[in-house]
Amino acid sequence: MQFKVLTHCDRFIDESMLYKGLYSTDEPKLYNLETTLDDLIDIRKKVGSIFNDNRYDLSIDNLSKCTLTIVEVKRIEQPLSFPQPSIN
C-alpha cells in the first residue's frame, strides 16, 4: 500500500510541531496519494482564520519547506511462536 508522508531533508516531519519548527519523528502521519502540499496549507489557512491564531501562519511557513513523499507500507506477518515445554 502506498501513502504520502511529510518530509524535509529525507526525515519524517512531526506535523504537530510545525508552528515551532521542523522536528523529525519516527511515526509520520500517512496521507492518501491524492493529497497535495497545497491541500495541507489550505486547511491550515482556513483553521487559522477561524481561530485567529498566528501559530497556523508559522506552521504554513514551515510546511512550505517540506515535501510529500510517497512511501510504501508493507505488513509483515510473523508466525506465532510458542515456547517449547522443557522435558526433564
Would you give an account of this structure?
The protein has one domain (2-72). It has a 3-stranded antiparallel beta sheet, with no helix packed on it. 27% of the residues lie in helices and 17% in strands. It is elongated, with a radius of gyration of 19 Å. The protein is an alpha+beta fold and 88 residues long.
Short description:
With 88 residues, the protein is of the alpha+beta class. Helix content is 27%, strand content 17%. The model has no long low-confidence stretch (mean pLDDT 90).
Q: Strand-residue fraction? A: 15-25%
Strand order within the widest beta sheet: 2-1-3
Question: For the report, how would you describe the main beta sheet?
Answer: 3 strands, antiparallel
**Broad shape:** elongated
Name the average pLDDT: 90
Q: Report the uncertain regions.
A: none
In terms of structural class, how would the helical and strand content be classed?
alpha+beta
Terminal-residue CA separation: 48 Å
Q: How many domains, as an integer? A: 1
Number of helical elements: 2
Radius of gyration: 19 Å
